[in-house]
């Protein structure tokens, strides 16, 4: 659905500006990314209104997205599947209430995974030169380290899920 809508929007944009050098395919990618993000935010916040966990959902959305931007991670083949899994995960994480030792354990595991694997799968996804990848690793670890001060159950879960998406075989 997201891909089809992105294609339709790209075709409409191209027909409105036929002389623009960007092809329909080039236009589709950012449109799909925006539709994906907006869908995740709207559906997640909608569910949070029903569960009464707007604050926790907002924390998960911001924390996960921020860490994902600097650490990378696996990409699903379909925007629809990404939205479905993301919204489900965010809703579940917003309902968590881990005890302090679980939060600490999740923070440590997340930080170790980030230090080992970040950035992961960011090739062709960013314009950040490879020489700055060690900085992205440090930024990922620092973002996770904030939860040693905050002690958020939802954030520890969000960071762990995101850190798990970084794992890939070393070549």
UniProtKB/TrEMBL annotation:
It comes from the Bacteria. The keyword Hydrolase applies. Keywords: Cell membrane, Hydrolase, Membrane, Protease, Quorum sensing, Transmembrane, Transmembrane helix. The chain crosses the membrane at residues 31-54, 74-95, 101-118, 138-161. GO terms for cellular component: membrane. GO terms for molecular function: peptidase activity. It holds the Pfam family AgrB. SMART domains: AgrB. InterPro entries: AgrB. One of its GO terms (biological process) is proteolysis. This is Accessory gene regulator B family protein.
């Amino acid at each position: 659905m997201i891909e089809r809508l992105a294609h339709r929007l790209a075709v409409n944009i191209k027909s409105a500006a036929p002389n623009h050098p960007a092809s329909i395919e080039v236009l589709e990618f950012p449109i799909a990314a925006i539709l994906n993000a907006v869908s995740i935010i709207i559906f997640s916040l909608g569910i949070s209104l029903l569960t009464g966990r707007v604050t926790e959902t907002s924390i998960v959305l911001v924390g996960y997205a921020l860490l994902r931007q600097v650490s990378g991670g696996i990409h699903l083949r379909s925007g629809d599947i990404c939205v479905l899994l993301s919204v489900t995960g965010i809703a579940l994480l917003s309902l968590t209430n881990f005890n302090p030792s679980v939060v600490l354990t999740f923070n440590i595991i997340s930080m170790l995974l980030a230090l080992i694997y970040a950035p992961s799968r960011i090739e062709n996804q960013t314009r950040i030169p490879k020489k700055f990848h060690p900085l992205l690793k440090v930024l990922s670890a620092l973002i996770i380290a904030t939860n040693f001060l905050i002690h958020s159950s939802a954030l520890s879960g969000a960071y762990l899920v995101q850190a798990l998406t970084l794992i890939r075989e070393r070549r």
